[in-house]
Design brief:
Elements lengths: L3 E2 L2 H23 L4 E7 L3 H16 L3 E7 L5 H13 L5 E4 L9 H7 L11 H9 L8 H14 L6 E5 L6 H10 L3 E5 L6 H6 L3 E4 L17 E4 L3 E4 L5 E4 L4 H7 L2 E2 L6 H20 L1
Parallel strand pairs: 1-11, 2-3, 2-4, 5-6, 5-7, 7-8, 8-11
Antiparallel strand pairs: 9-10
Helix pairs in contact: 1-10, 2-10, 6-7, 6-10
The structure holds guanine.
């Protein structure tokens, strides 16, 4: 029997609906809606799509959306100055600088310039430290936050579960491990240098695939009944000469073995932007 399909699109819509009500209440109480500023430097096509979607959804839930699109050749100092201006702007509760930045700009320096209280990506070292120390004030990266919501909806209590996170990025793998640990999972981080990765993944009750390698995880790697959260969004050539989106897991094979699995598209992807909106509301509340 095939595993259940975890509907991230529907869950994200539900979260946005909850946020819409909450934002209306906050606006009525404080006289202003939360504001999110998004900074895009350059012309990366995927980034442009993400930024447009973020702005649209920000407005849809009733928040203020500010967009800053700067040319590819913008100097690092100008980006830093913009971030500082947004830090000081009382109508801005969340600041997101879209990654990747052009090569001549030091991303780490830009991220560390964002006021941690407005860091809705949760990438600032202060928020990373808060997450790993269990400090409630942490703003937590959006994709792991969305993945945890889907996981808890599906599994309920995660206490004692064996969780394997494949991928060790700062954006997904590492914060995901921190969240799973906080839920009392036994957490293993697997990556490109892991020996016998199939055998490691086969121990997992929960598999988080966040490597960016299309169809890497095969059905034979999956323990029967496991829950799979596939964070990968990979564009590959399709039979009809066009392209299609696939995850890091070979979907048909893995779905046949798993207890539940997120599809790509329609799984984790929609949750990421919804959680960005959630983080902006959280930042607003923390600041008021
Ligand atoms: N680029 C890819 N994913 C992300 C993300 O979550 N936040 C930002 N700022 N840039 C990204």
């Amino acid at each position: 029997m095939a595993g259940a399909i975890i509907d991230g699109k529907a869950r994200a819509a539900k979260l946005r609906e909850t946020l819409t009500g909450e934002i209306a209440d906050l606006k009525a109480k404080t006289g202003r809606a939360p504001g999110l500023a998004v900074v895009l430097v350059g012309e990366d096509p995927a980034s442009k799509v993400y930024v447009r979607n973020k702005a649209e959804q920000t407005r849809e839930v009733g928040m203020l959306s500010l967009e800053f699109k700067l040319p590819e050749e913008t100097h690092e100092a100008e980006v830093l100055a913009l971030v500082q201006r947004l830090n000081a702007d009382p109508t801005v509760d969340g600041i997101l600088v879209q990654l990747p930045l052009p090569k001549h700009i030091d991303s780490a320096k830009v991220l560390l310039t964002i006021d941690p209280e407005k860091d809705v990506d949760g990438f600032h070292a202060v928020n990373v430290g808060r997450l790993w120390t269990g400090d409630k004030r942490a703003l937590v990266p959006c994709t792991p936050t969305g993945s945890m919501i889907l996981l808890k909806d599906t599994v309920g209590s995660l206490t004692g579960a064996n969780a394997v996170v494949i991928g060790r990025s700062n954006i997904v793998g590492k914060p995901m491990a921190a969240l799973l640990l906080a839920e009392s999972c036994t957490v293993t981080m697997a990556h490109s240098k892991t020996r016998e990765i199939e055998a490691v993944v086969r121990q997992a009750d929960i598999v988080i695939a966040a490597v960016g390698v299309p169809n890497m995880v095969r059905g034979s790697w999956i323990k029967p009944g496991a829950t799979i959260i596939d964070v990968g969004i990979n564009r590959i050539p399709s039979d009809n000469g066009k392209t299609k989106l696939v995850g890091d897991c070979q979907y048909e094979e893995c779905a046949a073995v798993a207890g539940a699995i997120t599809p790509v598209p329609g799984g984790v992807g929609p949750m990421t932007i919804a959680c960005l909106l959630l983080n902006t509301v959280t930042a607003f509340k923390n600041r008021n």
